[in-house]
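User: Second chain of the day. Same drill as before.
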Amino acid sequence: MPTERTSSRTAHTGRAAIIEMLKADHKKVKKAFGDFEKLDAQEDSEQCQAIVEQTLGDLQVHATLEEELFYPAARSCLSDEDLIDEAEVEHMTVKVLIEQLKNMAPEDDKYAAMFKVLGEYIKHHVKEEEGELFPKLSRAKFDWDNLHGEMVSRRSELEQEFMPHGAAIPDEDMEGEDAQAGAEGQRAKRV
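Assistant: Same format as last time:
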C-alpha cells in the first residue's frame, strides 16, 4: 500500500513529466519560428512550407492536449482560473491563424507575416504558461501520474491526426536517411 510520502513523490514525478513534455513542445516550436526567420519565404519556399506545416501540426497537437486534458486538470486544482481563461482565449486566436496559414502558400504576400505573428502569440503564451501557470501547479494536488499517461496516449492519437505525413523537419546534425530515422525516433520517444 503506498504511503502518503510515496504518492506525493509519484504525483511530483507525474507533474514534472507533464511540465517537461509541455516545455519540450514550447522549445521545439520556438526553435522552428527562429529557423523560419532566417529564411526568405520566396527563395526558400519549400523549406519554409515544411517548417510551417510541421509547426502547425505541433501546435495543434500541443493545444489539443492542453485544452482536453491539461487545462481542465489545472482548473480543478487552482483557485485562480484567470490564467486558464486567458490561455484558452489565446488558443482561440492561434487556431484562427493556423487555419489561415493552412489556406496559404509560401508565395502569398502575407504568408511570412502571418507565421511571424503566430510566433509572437506563441512566445507570449509560452511566457505566461512557464512563468505563471506552471509554478502555480507546483503544490497542486491532483492525480498527475494518471494525467501524464492520458496525455502520452492522446498525443499519439493527435500526431496521427495533425502531423503532416513525410514533412518532418530533419535534425540539422543528420543527413538523408539518418535525419528521417532521427525524426521518427523523436516521434517514438514522445509516445
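Confidence is low (pLDDT under 50) at residues 1-10, 166-191.

User: Great, on to the next one.
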